[in-house]
Prior knowledge:
Blueprint (H helix, E strand, L loop, with lengths): L4 E6 L4 H13 L5 E9 L9 H31 L6 E9 L2 H11 L4 E5 L13 H9 L5 E4 L10 E6 L7 H14 L2 E8 L6 H13 L5 E7 L4 H11 L3 E8 L6 H4 L3 H8 L4 E5 L3
Parallel strand pairs: 1-2, 1-4, 2-3, 4-5, 6-7, 6-9, 7-8, 9-10
Antiparallel strand pairs: 5-10
Protein name: UspA domain-containing protein
Family: Belongs to the universal stress protein A family.
Pfam families: Usp
Amino acid sequence: MxxxxxxLLPTDFSKNAQHAxxxxxxxxxxxxxTFYLLNAYEAGPSALTSKxxxxxxxxxxxxxxxxxxxxxxxxxxxxxxGSTHPRxxxxxxxxxxxxxxxxxxxxxxxxxxxxxxxxxxxxxxxxVFMGSNTVKIIKAIDFCPLIAVPQEFPLKRPKxxxxxxxYEHIYGAFELSPLVKIAQLCQSKVIAxxxxxxxxxxxxxxxxxxLLSKRLKSISYELREVANGKSLVKHLDDYIGxxxxxxxxxxxxxxxxxxxxxxxxxxxKKVAFHCKxxxxxxxxxx
Length: 286
């Protein structure tokens, strides 16, 4: 069992971002965790503008920086003062950079185990941070698992985890580790669901299925087959809708994969934006 987790929590201070933070605290309630609350902002002066405009931009940058730090202090105080988990500690990061760069650097420098984000963001004067940016992080930060949390999802841990697979890839123990660790932590059952396109599995699929069983032997799991007759997203949506025990959807992203078919149409957005349960994306090691 993992002795501790480092969790990165990007935030724009919206209600959805705050909900994702609370979900992360709930999910890892029984673990030793360090949560890093990250706010990234961009308002730097341009080298192409005149001296007068650069001075104005610099004042604007300082105002944005001050506001971001003030908001981060407020959220951090609420989080730490309201915490009922003695095994949790919280740290804050205010970074003048793009979201992708800030997250990528934090993941590497802080040895982050999971990034947890919401899937909707602030509107009005604030940039729409979540949603499209969640997809950007999924695509750009391909070296850390990410959990996208729907705003409406209740603060509860998964009784069952749905793992969608095409048996097209030989999963390594390291790749499955983020899934297995959450299943162990939450005592969840993993439902490995294969959406069948052919009458019989090909040889490499049979091998992948057999090895998957071996990789999951340390946890409770079940292998299920579903006949192909509708879109992947429709299959997942219907299955989750009909099985209220499912509290987390998981996929592994690898090149030319079952999952890549999702990323090359707007399906990744449909899953990340519209999935009724939190969505764990794990990247393949190749």
